[in-house]
Amino acid sequence: MIYYLASPQYLWLLLLIPLLPAAFALGRIVRTSRIRRLGDEALVKELMPSVSKSKDWARMVLFTIGFAAFVIGLCRPQIGAKLSEHKTRGAEVMIALDVSNSMLAEDYSPNRLERAKLAISRITDRLKEDRIGLIIFAGTSFVQLPITADYVSAKMFLSTISTGSVPVQGTAIGDAIQTAIRSFSLESEKSRAIIVISDGENHEDDAVAAAANAKESGISVYTIGVGSPEGQPIPMDGNLLKDKDGQIVVTKLNEDALRSIAEAGGGAYIRAGNDEFGLNPILDDIEAMEAEEFNSIVFEEYNEQFMYFFAIAFVLFAIDMLLGRRRARKKLFV
Q1: pLDDT score for 178
Q2: Largest distance between two CA atoms of the chain
Q3: Is the alpha carbon torsion for 224, 120, 236, 160 positive or negative?
Q4: Helix 151-159 crosses helix 112-126 at what angle (to 10 degrees)?
Q5: Of residues 171, 189, 179, the one with CA closest to residue 210
Q6: CA angle, corner 280, sides to 274 and 281, nearest 5?
């Protein structure tokens, strides 16, 4: 059973609930103070024998609970418990993201890695019925998100990525491409693409051969170069990363390597800019691919529950109004 609030912004109204009894109590204090000005408090009470303090508090409790139910109703609680098969038509895209320490260089704002994550998030905003997967790599690679049409989950997994996500440092682009090849679904045969986002520096394996292998399997390999040819130092723990000789490490964009990988993979190389990250031409190519039909198992048909909370609030408000402030008579018949 999945519980979901369609309009959670109204939850802030629940912060008013503690203020309701406080305002009520303050009102009673002010009223008592006014009664004392009129004369003896005990005498005034005798002149109003039918007024019930307990009913006042009971009405306050009913109103407070009713208000809470009304706010929850505004939040539109929903329940979804139905698994259904959903057919989509599109392509499958595996994104391989470099998370090596060199991606901390700040030739993009705030750094290469965060800028790349923002670009991937924008990819999910543009995709329609395509499926997306995410691989992260440094000295080795692994699947961070299996191929899926759930873009919300994709963004959630994306937010957790850092340079510490892969313990082995390096830039194993070839390993990342091989991992991506194995990660496509069995349903997909034609419309498949791998997007490698990296600075391309110090790649440790034969990434060109891996890209050629992908092309032979009908998979296009695109590369996006992140960084600047002149290079930038790498901030690490408040200092700049240094090599074993104590020299500051400067990481540079290796465009030749990334271009060779894209050519071998039948795709294209694009250098990321600060404003336009270079994704649009690649996504245009993917949209032009022949759409394939996929089956996905998804939760759907959320059932609205707000009407029950509104009904509870209405009943409590009605009882509040009907209850009145007078004491109940002791005898029903004289």
Answers
A1: 96
A2: 105
A3: negative
A4: 170
A5: 179
A6: 115
